[in-house]
Every structure is written in C-alpha cells, then in structure tokens.
Design goal:
The chain has 289 residues and is α+β, with helices and mostly antiparallel strands. The chain is 22% helix and 26% strand. It has 7 helices and 16 strands. Strands 1, 2, 3, 4, 5, 6, 14 and 16 form an 8-stranded mixed β-sheet that branches. A 3-stranded antiparallel β-sheet has the order 13-7-15. Strands 9-8-12 form a 3-stranded antiparallel β-sheet.
Amino acid sequence: MPFDVQQPQAYQHLTTRPISGGVGAEIEGVDLADAPPHVMAEVHQALLQHGVIFFRDQELRPEELIAAAKCFGPLNIHPIYLPLDGYPEIMPVVKEPTATMNIGNSWHSDVSFMEKPSLGSLLYALDVPPYGADTIFASQRLAYEGLSDEMKSMLGGMRAVHSDRILSSAESKAKRNAGRSTKLDETPTPEVQTTHPVIRTIPETGQRHLYVNEAFTIRFDGMTEAESKPLLDFLYEHGHKPEFTCRFQWRKGSVAFWDNRAVQHYAINDYQGFRREMWRVTVEGERPE
C-alpha cells in the first residue's frame, strides 16, 4: 500500500517539527552515526512525508556518513565533480573565502540528465559562514497540485529532454572551475541527453510531481528549444512559488536529506569572504515514470 504523505504520521523513534507550511521538517532524536534499521525506516517515512528533512548536531566520520546513506539504497558517484580523497562516494562541496561562485545556485533537481537520477542526497555541514549560505527547497508535489486540471492533463502526456551541457562542455568546465573551490573533472566528455516524463510518480507514495528544472531541462520531446521555452519558463517560475518552499539555515553539524524526486533546491551565494565546506553522499534512484 502506498505511503500517504498527506496523512499525519505517528513516529515511535523520532520527532518531526515542520519548518514551513509547504515542505521540510527538522528531525529530533536521531544520531545518524549509529541509528539502527528500525529508526532509519522511520527516517525514510519522514523523508517521503516532508520531501526534505534536517538533522542538527551530528558528528559524522566519512565512513559513518556513507553507512547512513547506504540505509536507503546503493550510492551514486557524481559523473563529473571530483570526489573526496579516499572516499569516492563523497562529493566535497567547498567554497573558499576567495571563491566567487558556489555550486547549485540555480533551481534544480540533481543529475536529472541521467537515465536514473538520484533518489536523494545527504549533505553534511563541516564548516559554515557566520551568516548566509542558506539552501531553499521547493515541493514539486505542491507545484503539480497547484496547476489547473487542463494543464495537468496536457503535461501528463508530455516528456522533456534533460541535458548536462552546463557541466560537460570544456568551456563550461573551465569557466566553472575558475570561480569555484569544488572542481569539475576537466576531461572532455560528450553531452548526455535523457528524456523523462514531465510529471513523474514516486513509487512509494503514488504521488505525482512536476519534473522539469531550469538547470538541466532544455526542451520538450518532439519540440525545439524555442518552441518549448514559453511553457518551460512558466513551469520553472511556478515550481518555486514561495508557498511551495522552505529555507534552511545551516549550522556546523547539520545534515539535510532531500528526496531528489520530490523537491528542487537552490543554494544561495551570499557569503563572500567566508568559508563553507560540506560533504554530499547521493543515493541511487530509479527511472522516472
């Protein structure tokens, strides 16, 4: 039976505290370094219910972060960004004080250009600025539900093409590496394009979600980019209306775990002159349907 994300849930081993009316909740009572399987099963339920969940005051060695993520499935290694030395499963997300650009400062769903985009990611904060560097998340379930019936009907039969061109071209890699601390592998790679449904259903819940994003979606299947642009632009703007979002303020030891199928996110670049270091571990997903 699908998990009903719209019904209140009674958890035995953790406490949830929603941080907005639309999406996101802080989880209390869980130490991710040694949480047993029955606790992690409830963490999974909380993720499905809230789209993104947050933990405070965690102390995680690389092996513990990897082990926690593996509770939710096999892990994905990012195809382009360089990993943490000795830990291919961990992608370091670092911005030094002298860097001008950060990673993720556009609305996106991670690696949607892959045939099987990720289920989700755990992002662990090791070093954060005294202010700024928040991350915003937007519920794509609410975005879908906020569309008219006619729009839902039309989009339900459409597919969209997703591309990694903003990451894979030699020009893009060089430009991004010039202003960022976290580096892309500059080895030339061909552009990847993959077609996914515009409305996807999450298997565990049966809930439908809008599934296009401004970073990686380039056109509708069977249309040109110019023909696709007006409707895509509308959907991009609609998908992150304020009432669909939450904003998370990081502290050292915080962890965010988002369902990449259900939310988009945006990393705010407003902390020039300060250092920020995170570790990201990503769980493999399924082919969108």
